[in-house]
Amino acid sequence: LFLKGKDPSSILSEGEQKVIALADFIAESTITTINKGIVFDDPVTSLDHKRKETIAKRLVEISNSKQVIIFTHDIAFVKYLEIYSKNKFGTDKNKVCVHTIVNRDKNCIGFVELISTPIKDSAYTTSHIPKQYLAKAKKESDRDFAQSLIRSGFSSLRSCYEAIVVTKIFAGAVQRYIEEVKVSRIKEIKYDIDICNRISENHSQIHKLIEAHLPIDELNIHFTNEKLEEAITEFENILNEIDKI
Q: Staple partner for 60: which of 84, 93, 107, 244, CB 3.0–4.6 Å?
């Protein structure tokens, strides 16, 4: 392909070239009936959200006639795939499956969680996950790994605060990775300035704690079971107060 006698790379952006290549591949796979399945490895790298959404919609359409397997680390793209898959197939797990590769423990490089989406806002609306890390940390005899578990507990607690802003405070009216605002949900929004300030302060403190670049001993910061337990209790208190509004 040449545009007015020039090489495409001198005219088209990296994203535009990727989209053209993807369109060509999809067209070829559609014409060739012997292809019963297609595998994509991160097809939306370097693309903007609008193109990610368009490609997700197209790949879901293709999956109606042949198997489509997609590997990606792009959370926004996963969200678009889930939205269009749900619109087309509902909750039929025979049509759509999402698996996640995670680092579960110190002895496991990668573990596949079957039927598990990496977008887990709903899973973080309680203190369940931080408590799991706390329980493991209390049983761990290796000090360094115990510290790692507590750090993961604080990290998951940060995610909990982010999740309740979306699901509890804004009642799902505004969601991450989705541009549209669900106006009908604003009637369920729960807003209290004191609670919002506490959420903001606690989230900020946790963020500074787990994102510290210097060794924690140099900063006189120590991850302890007691500190994580106190932070979890404070989160649960905030949840209870939100539910009473």
A: 84
SS3 of the chain: the string is CCECCECHHHCCCHHHHHHHHHHHHHHHHHHCCCCCEEEEECCCCCCCHHHHHHHHHHHHHHCCCCEEEEECCCHHHHHHHHHHHHHHHCCCCCCCCCCEEECCCCCCCCEEECCCCCCCCHHHCCCHHHHHHHHHHHHCCCHHHHHHHHHHHHHHHHHHHHHHHHHHHCCCCCCCCCCCCCHHHHHHCCCCHHHHHHHHHHHHHHHHHHCCCCCCCCCCCCCCHHHHHHHHHHHHHHHHHHHHC
Query: At 45, phi and psi to the nearest 5?
Result: -60, 135
Structure token digits, residue 129: 């996950």
> Do 163 and 124 meet the contact criterion of CB atoms below 8 Å apart?
yes
Name 71's bridge partners. 41
pLDDT one-digit tens code per residue, 162-221 = 889 988 899 888 877 676 788 888 888 988 999 999 999 999 999 888 766 444 454 445
Question: Is the pTM of the predicted complex or chain greater than 0.70?
Answer: no
Q: What Å distances lie between residue 9 and 6, 14, 15, 55, CA to CA?
A: 8, 8, 11, 21
In angstroms, the CA 22 to CA 20 distance is 5
What are the two backbone dihedrals, phi and then psi, of residue 214, each rounded to the nearest 5 degrees?
A: -85, 155
